Amino acid sequence: MIHLCLPPSPEHYLQEIGRAGRDGRAAKAIALPLEEEFVSRHSLAHSDRLSHNQLEIVFMRLQTLVDEALNDIPPEACVDLNADRLLVDDIHVAMPVTQTVDSSDCKEESIETICSLLEEESQSSTSYLSVEGYLPDAAIITLKKRSLDKLEKLEHIAQSIAKCCVRMDTQTEHGGTAMEKGFYAYSFGTYKFSIVRCARCMGPNTEPRHVYAALRRLQENGELELVLDTTANGRALHLKMKQDGIHLFRTKGKQDLACQGVQSPALGDDAGAIVAKLSNQFSAKEKVGVDKVESIYEIMHHVSMQHDNINELDYELDADDDTNEEEGVKKSHRLKVFQKMVQAYFSNESPAQDLSTNKAPEVIKNFPMNKARHMSCLSSDVSLLMQVLSLRRQEQMPMAVHINHPNFADYRDLCLAKILHSIDAPRAPILSWYSHQLWGKYRNYSFSSVVNAIKKTFDNA
Fold it and tell me: What pTM, to 2 d.p., does this model score?
């Protein structure tokens, strides 16, 4: 078995080389990693890092969803205002995936991780929420037999649709004449609405699957034509907010701060504390990933510096093995060193004593912030990136991280560092940025030092 690339961790490498020799025959594992691969792996280990601002935006999105959900439920059936006590056990919300990714600049996998951590976060007997999976939340119906107001008298779901729908066939893009309207001119109306919101309007115990079933039944009866938006824009993460989650995210009538037209993060103390805790968890996960990459590089380098005595026997019997000598396992010197270092890695002990004599060279160094020429060059590169990123459509979104706003300096520094380290992100995808002159320019410096250097350029501006 030959490895041409550096594995991301000792665990990965052991799992992969374990496939050799499964047929019972002798096998060798040969690794041929390059030093440049360590630079790439080390950089990618920071890819899931999130700023505090990004987590706040995700929480604000959840906060908005909860407020909208509570508004769909009659107040008397939702909250006991005198005791400030919720009367519902849970509510269903749909987090739009594309909009959340665009506004927070978080990967979809990171948003899933945030929701999963919230699912396990609560210290009480129940969690803040449960992740129900993905669903197509945007539905469009075209009525074929009767108008919506007449259908309301026959079907309960029609009453809920009327509360949350937007009529499509009266929009200007369909024109005013029958020819301009096309198919819409021969229907009793076309409406667009959210499946999850329609379920809330039907009652606190109604779930999205009940709405799907009712719409399919009406379609089979010839009442309507149903189209579900299965594209990325119509895809949503279905969450069931428990009472703890509703208490955590509802604003209770408080208005969020606004600064120059940009909504500034304004979370309650409880939500802010959880954001800080999640931020620490993501940082800890990042450090573990970086440590694993450095460990496998150290092991690979140290083993490669060992030499077997080819003038004598290529293999010798391992004295530590209890195997019968006739059937003993013969090990090369390199294999013994590798096993010793791997054992030390998993037991959190110091590696082989002779590691210091063959210490891996320092490939990734800290950015020299004390050198004016380097800082001047970085400042110029940062200014160019700021000009490019400020033209992105996400900068105009009302509830999003903004690279040019002082309240989002934490996100700004991280976003710029990812580009300079060639780390893919929703707002800087690799396919769009790969040929840019600044993509990965500072990858040979440690990621954290690049983030700190960027921050310093703005502090000195």
Answer: 0.84
